[in-house]
Amino acid sequence: MTEKTLFQKIMDRELDGEILYEDDRCAVLRDINPQAPVHVLVVPRKPIPSLDDLTEQDEPLIGHLFTVARQAAANEGLTNGYRTVFNNGEDANQTVPHLHLHVLGGRRLGWPPG
Ligand code: AMP
What's the CATH superfamily of 6-105? Predict the structure, then answer.
């Protein structure tokens, strides 16, 4: 059996974390090192390492992550916009090899990202 990812351990309550929402397919976690006043992560229960590992079978799951992201943004009071980001691989600074959708907001976000 492969070792659980960091996010699996948080979702399984083996590590501390602030879980804001969960259902049978994903959870919303508060980011431990926020890059904006609101920074949460929508994490699928399935430990897909990155976007490069997606299959067609995962397409409904990815759609679900976005509807949960929209609801999380609303719950966090992000009425003036927000950003959703999947970092993929080294050049994008992906640090946790378990797919997660960042939801960032609460301030004016710069573009292009650094
Ligand atoms: P990425 O760099 O796209 O892989 O994003 C990983 C995110 O996970 C970063 O924004 C980290 O701050 C966040 N993170 C790392 N460890 C934890 C943790 N224990 N609980 C919540 N978020 C975490």
Answer: HIT-like (3.30.428.10)
